[in-house]
Design brief:
Elements: H1 2-29, E1 40-43, E2 46-49, H2 51-62, H3 69-76, E3 88-92, H4 106-110, E4 115-118, E5 129-133, E6 154-159, E7 178-181, E8 188-189, E9 193-197, E10 212-217, H5 226-234, E11 241-243, H6 256-261, E12 263-269, H7 280-287, E13 291-295, H8 299-302, E14 312-313, H9 320-332, H10 334-338, E15 347-351, H11 356-368, H12 378-383
Parallel strand pairs: 3-4, 3-5, 5-6, 6-7, 7-8, 10-11, 10-12, 12-13, 13-14
Antiparallel strand pairs: 1-2, 9-15
């Protein structure tokens, strides 16, 4: 009888052991959550993932941790590591436009600590975040990751082009956790440029010597663009010196700063008009000491980014002819012209380090925000 009881005990222990082993095997080798079908709750223009998604992750990584400690520790060696509290790793899945960007330290460039950038795809399972550039995503998503996404990993959608210049790609809804773009309603907003307050001992500014009146560099000419239509009207009243591929007067990267700096005015005309879409066409001339004449979103929108007395908006005038007359007056009156540089005693301006800045600020956002969320309807939010 005693022998029989001992055999029953052994069989029971073995059954319990095998059951837990089977449970552990299922937990770590079953498919992860389908990233395209996470139930979500509508919150503003983005969405927060429902508790069901989070609970699923927690259950998969905690079951049997007490009863089978040794076996669990062995399995942990094969699963993706959880986020480090000391350093956050961001993987740049595709280099924006294929550019060779030096992934410098976020600390030295932006005073962002605790972030590491890489483009080594072998680190996919350990990366806390993945950065995807919209213009480099294939229409069929064939160049996107195929491995199951670790539960702690955030996918960041990056796009600095306007909706008019961005192709809508099917299958992107509910694929990403965060967005970074020029728009102020992105999760991580990175404008094309920004101003900062000057220190008290750095408030003198010398306007560059001017040799030209009005300049414009254009590489992409489209007669249907608003900027092209306005230029055609403006040139009827005032001379505009044009450069760029569209006018068979190529300007190299090396020649660009010198050329723009010697122009009194530069036509900072955007190729499409959208809220917050204010590009390097504005910030580069401002940096080089030229007064920008802007065509894009409203003056009010511009003033969210730059001082009101730093630019001239085409909407300030009823016609292109009135704008031309105003520019002629400023061209002849030095005292009136230099007033457009008064803001430089208070502010400095700089452009964005394209690619690097989006990566560093996305990494910093992930480091500081551990909560889970998903962008459930990217297409409607961005393209409307």
């Amino acid at each position: 009888m005693m022998e029989s009881q001992r055999w029953c005990q052994h069989i029971l222990i073995a059954a319990v052991f095998l059951s837990c082993v089977f449970a552990i095997f299922y937990m770590y080798y079953s498919p992860t959550i389908n990233r395209l079908h996470c139930p979500a709750l509508q919150v503003s223009k983005h969405n927060v993932c429902a508790d069901a998604c989070i609970n699923h992750s927690q259950i998969r990584n905690n079951t049997c941790a007490v009863n089978l400690t040794v076996l669990n520790n062995q399995l942990k060696e094969a699963k993706p590591s959880s986020p480090s509290q000391s350093e956050t790793l961001l993987l740049i899945w595709m280099r924006p436009f294929g550019q060779n960007i030096a992934w410098e330290s976020c600390s030295s460039q932006f005073q962002i600590e605790g972030c590491q950038l890489t483009d080594d795809r072998n680190l996919f399972n350990t990366a806390h975040g993945i950065l995807f550039h919209h213009r480099d995503i294939h229409q069929d998503l064939s160049n996107m990751p195929t491995l199951p996404r670790p539960y702690f990993q955030k996918w960041v959608w990056m796009n600095m082009e306007s909706p008019s210049n961005s192709g809508l790609i099917p299958g992107l809804n509910a694929l990403f956790n965060l967005t970074t773009s020029y728009r102020r309603d992105s999760d991580i907003t990175v404008p094309y440029g920004q101003t900062s307050e000057r220190s008290a001992d750095d408030r003198t500014y010398q306007i560059p010597q001017k040799e030209k009146f009005i300049c414009w560099i254009v590489s992409n000419w489209n007669p249907d663009h608003e900027r092209s239509k306005y230029y055609e009207k403006l040139k009827e009243h005032v001379s505009v010196e044009t450069f760029g591929k569209s006018f068979n007067r190529y300007v190299s990267d090396g020649d660009y700063p010198k050329l723009v700096s010697i122009c009194k005015f530069y036509l900072s005309f955007e190729n499409s008009i959208h809220e917050d879409y204010i590009t390097e066409k504005l910030f580069n001339p401002m940096t080089l000491g030229t007064v920008p004449v802007v065509l894009g979103p409203s003056r009010k929108n511009y003033e969210r980014f730059i001082p009101a007395d730093s630019f001239i908006h085409v909407d300030d005038f009823k016609t292109a002819g009135e704008l031309a007359e105003h520019l002629k007056v400023l061209h002849q009156n030095t005292d009136m012209y230099v007033k457009y540089f008064g803001w430089r005693e208070r502010h400095a301006v700089r452009g964005t380090l394209f690619g690097l800045e989006q990566a560093c600020r996305s990494c910093d956002h992930i480091r500081r925000n551990r909560n889970y969320r998903t962008v459930n309807d990217l297409n409607t939010w961005y393209w409307g």
